[in-house]
Specification:
This protein has helices spanning 19-29, 66-69, 85-95, 117-123, 148-154, 179-200, 213-220, 222-231, 265-274, 289-294, 296-307, 312-321, 332-335, 339-343, 385-393, 397-405, and strands at 10-14, 33-38, 53-55, 61-65, 75-79, 100-103, 128-133, 208-212, 248-253, 256-261, 326-328, 347-352, 355-361. By secondary structure, it is an alpha/beta fold. The chain folds into two domains: 10-220 and 345-405, Rossmann fold, CATH 3.40.50.10540; 248-330, 2-Layer Sandwich (formyl-coa transferase, domain 3). Helix 1 (19-29) packs across helix 6 (179-200). The two termini are 33 Å apart.
């Protein structure tokens, strides 16, 4: 089996729910040994986020739900009570052999347990310690709690998402997935990789990383935010319309809808030919992209009427032959049956104690020399407790049994 990019890196993961676990999963996919610490008996908060759950052999609901499984593949789960002095001592022992510690507790929360950066740096000066919080370690809101939906509103994302003003159903709209959590997880993984490079290739030391969901949300607004900073104009909601090349929108067909992006003047001319209306290429209000952007609503209405005359399959064939960026609007059943997604292997089957053929999502990363080819199912609560304590800390079965009796594990 080929080596993985991070197979010599060990991560102690104290994060819960989504943003932090998604970041550590990115590292786990690339081969890092991610030891996930969960509360005995309860586990990660994500385990109680509702259906669907995997069922046991008798059909009973377990604690293995889809939300938890989405961000915890390729990890080892250790059930350990970090609120107990003995549990804290075990964490400090594990830190000695770790490269990275990740946590998403409230600001300052872990200091009372002696598990903050300064305390663990004294044990392992090479440690990279990443804190993930809603608002960061400093500032007037640093102690405020928050979840993804709140940050979607605060960072401005909802203000530019949804049906435009003046149309039925107008108003700010939350993006379906917990997208700020996912942006944050990607930033976490990038930051950890940069810190590892600085330490190992750049001759540096370990360091502390402060990642905030609000910061990541604002950063992810990218060109929207820069439009405001450059012009002083506040961007508005445009529904499915694009921001640059036009026409870009969802267009209704006779049996569904498609999404099209006409990114430049050349593509626009090809689009007009493909739909059988070459005269639109020289229309006085549409013949340049600057004009099409100025008349975005008018051109969208024109193409709405055109696409409504035939089916999704008909138009996608026409547009594909003309090289127009276009595609169907798939639900998730259609996504995992989509020929390109099937070819790319986006559904991976792995064995799980409750289901021998559990489907999970594969990593989107493809390496030529260090390919990610093997996946392990998201762990059950405490599945690897004895394995980690015995192999990494040298504890005997009797010692582990005593810890279990005390409620430490």
């Amino acid at each position: 089996m080929a080596r993985l990019p991070l197979e010599n890196i060990r991560v102690l993961d104290l994060t819960r729910v989504l943003a932090g676990p998604f970041g550590s999963q990115v590292l786990a996919d690339m081969g890092a040994d991610v030891i996930k610490i969960e509360r005995p008996g309860a586990g990660d908060d994500a385990r109680i986020f509702g259906e669907p759950y995997l069922r046991d052999a008798e059909g009973n609901r377990t604690r293995e739900n889809a939300f938890y499984m989405s961000v915890n593949r390729n990890k080892r789960s250790v059930a350990l009570n970090i609120a107990s002095p003995r549990g804290q001592a075990l964490i400090r022992e594990l830190v000695k052999s770790c490269d990275v510690v990740m946590e998403n507790y409230k600001v300052g929360d872990l200091k009372r347990y002696g598990l903050d950066y300064d305390s663990l740096k004294a044990i392992n000066p090479r440690i990279i310690y990443c804190s993930v919080t809603g608002y960061g370690q400093t500032g007037p809101l640093a102690s405020k709690p928050g979840y993804d939906a709140v940050f979607q509103g605060e960072c401005g994302l909802m203000s530019v998402t949804g049906i435009p003003e003046g149309k039925p159903g107008a108003g700010p709209m939350k993006v379906g997935p917990s997208i700020i959590d996912l942006f944050t997880g990607l930033n976490v993984a990038n930051a950890v990789l940069a810190a590892l490079y600085h330490r190992d290739a750049g001759g540096g030391e370990g360091q502390y990383i402060d990642v905030a969901l609000l910061d990541c949300g604002i950063s992810a607004l990218s060109h929207y935010a820069q439009i405001y900073l450059t012009s002083g104009e506040v961007p508005v909601r445009r529904g499915t319309q694009g921001n640059g090349g036009m026409p870009t929108s969802k267009f209704p067909c006779s049996d569904g809808a498609i999404m099209i992006t006409s990114g430049n003047d050349k593509q626009y001319v090809a689009l007009c030919d493909a739909v059988g209306h070459p005269e639109l290429a020289t229309h006085p209000r549409f013949h340049t992209n600057v004009l099409r952007v100025q008349h975005r609503d008018e051109i969208t209405e024109v193409f709405d009427a055109i696409f409504a005359t035939n089916t999704v399959a008909y138009w996608l064939e026409k547009l594909g032959a003309a090289g127009i960026p276009s595609g169907p609007i798939n639900d998730l059943e259609q996504v995992f049956d989509y020929p390109q997604a099937v070819h790319r292997g986006m559904r991976v089957r792995v064995p799980h104690p409750l289901k021998p053929d559990l489907d999970v999502i594969r990593s989107p990363l493809n390496f030529s020399e260090t390919p990610i080819t093997d996946y392990r199912a998201p762990p059950m609560l405490g599945e690897h407790t004895r394995e980690v304590l015995a192999a990494e800390l040298g504890l005997s079965e009797a010692e582990i049994a005593a810890l279990a009796d005390e409620g430490v594990v």
